[in-house]
């Protein structure tokens, strides 16, 4: 299943916010067959629901509410990194004074008016949800390696930075694996770049399946190199995981003319003990040095270091 197919198969989620139960029911009835609907009668409840994962794809937000009006709710949503990208459509009565400038400054993308005209409301909502879906796809593709369809270097850099910070906060270990296909240039020279690309895809798929823990993260690091971030993983487990990956690739039995046998990978492992502050560049440098040691030691092997 491609990213596009997966996105289409998921029902998008709408948060409806209005202090009138009648208005809530009208809007929920209008969209419940096509979308997942959650509802809130006040601003505080709306903020809580908006921050709950999975986040809404769109929010229909009444302006005039007691305690906290729609403008303030929208302002708070836009100040929160977890909700700032959710499009907000303001809902207002025709009889109410509508300050469009204030609404757009608060972060709203559109207005609809009460009493509702269902075809118009559905058209507005569908338009903004379509834009949201396209934005989400673009963001996902921006973090995806086009050839192997696993996360790319950009995504890897972001994940490694976050995991280094989380490792220190949670007092848990962290390990990084850098993997390189042995003599991949020789393979390309012997079989051609088209066959080389197919090998990169097979290696990526095999590594992805072999990393079974939910928190483990695999990316194409560049060229014929791959990297895996292993949260909550000490040096012993990291080396065991690396050896498993090495054996999985060797067992594919991809013949290598230049190497005179099956295609293999070398791996460098760097681990950080709990409570130690580490910067991504330091961890990368350590894993790279371990990888070069594995290469110099004869390839198709694992070398490790603990910082």
Essential attributes:
elongated; 11 helices; disordered N terminus; alpha/beta; 307 residues; 5-stranded mixed beta sheet; 21% strand
Report what the structure shows.
Helix 8 packs across helix 9 and helix 9 crosses helix 10. The chain is elongated. The protein is 47% helix and 21% strand. The chain is an alpha/beta fold and 307 residues long. The protein contains eleven helices and twelve strands.
Alpha-beta classification: alpha/beta
Percent in strands: 15-25%
For the secondary structure, the number of strands is 12
**Discrete helix count:** 11
Oligomer: single chain
Return the average pLDDT rounded to an integer. 90
Main beta-sheet annotation: 5 strands, parallel
Strand neighbour order, sheet with most strands: 2-1-3-4-5
First-to-last CA distance? 40 Å
Helix share bin: 40-55%
Tertiary shape: elongated
Written as H for each helix and E for each strand, in order along the chain, the element string is HEHEHEHEHEHHEHHEEHEEEHE
Rg of Cα set: 25 Å
Low-pLDDT runs:
1-9
Provide a quick synopsis of the model.
The chain has 307 residues and is α/β, with parallel strands linked by helices. It has helices spanning 3-9, 21-31, 43-50, 70-79, 100-106, 118-142, 153-170, 184-191, 193-210, 235-250, 280-296; strands at residues 13-17, 36-40, 58-62, 88-93, 110-114, 174-181, 217-222, 225-231, 255-256, 261-262, 265-272, 302-306. Strand 4, helix 5 (100-106) and strand 5 (110-114) form a beta-alpha-beta unit.
């Amino acid at each position: 299943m491609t990213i596009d197919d997966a996105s289409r198969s998921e029902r998008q989620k709408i948060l409806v916010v209005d202090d009138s139960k009648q208005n809530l029911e009208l809007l929920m009835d209008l969209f419940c067959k096509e979308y997942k609907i959650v509802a809130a009668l006040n601003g505080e409840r709306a903020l809580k629901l908006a921050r709950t994962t999975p986040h809404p794809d769109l929010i229909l937000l009444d302006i005039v509410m007691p305690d906290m009006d729609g403008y303030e709710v929208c302002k708070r949503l836009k100040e929160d990194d977890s909700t700032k990208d959710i499009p907000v459509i303001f809902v207002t009565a025709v009889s109410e004074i509508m300050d469009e400038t204030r609404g757009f400054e608060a972060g709203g993308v559109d207005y609809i008016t009460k009493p509702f005209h269902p075809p118009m409301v559905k058209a507005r909502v569908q338009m903004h949800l379509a834009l949201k879906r396209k934005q989400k796809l673009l963001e996902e593709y921006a973090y995806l390696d086009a050839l192997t369809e696993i996360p790319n270097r950009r995504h890897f850099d972001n994940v490694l930075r976050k995991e280094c910070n989380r490792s220190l906060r949670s007092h848990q270990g962290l390990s990084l694996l850098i993997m390189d296909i042995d003599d991949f240039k020789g393979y390309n020279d012997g079989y051609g770049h088209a066959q080389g690309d197919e090998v990169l895809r097979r290696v990526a798929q095999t590594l992805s399946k072999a990393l079974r823990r939910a928190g483990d993260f695999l990316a194409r690091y560049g060229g014929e190199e791959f990297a895996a971030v292993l949260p909550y993983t000490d040096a012993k487990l990291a080396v065991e995981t690396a050896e498993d990956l090495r054996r999985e690739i060797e067992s594919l039995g991809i013949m290598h003319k230049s190497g005179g046998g099956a295609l293999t990978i070398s791996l460098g492992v760097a681990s950080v003990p709990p409570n130690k502050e580490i910067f991504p560049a330091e961890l990368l440098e350590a894993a790279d040095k371990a990888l070069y040691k594995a290469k110099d030691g004869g390839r198709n092997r694992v070398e490790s270091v603990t910082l």
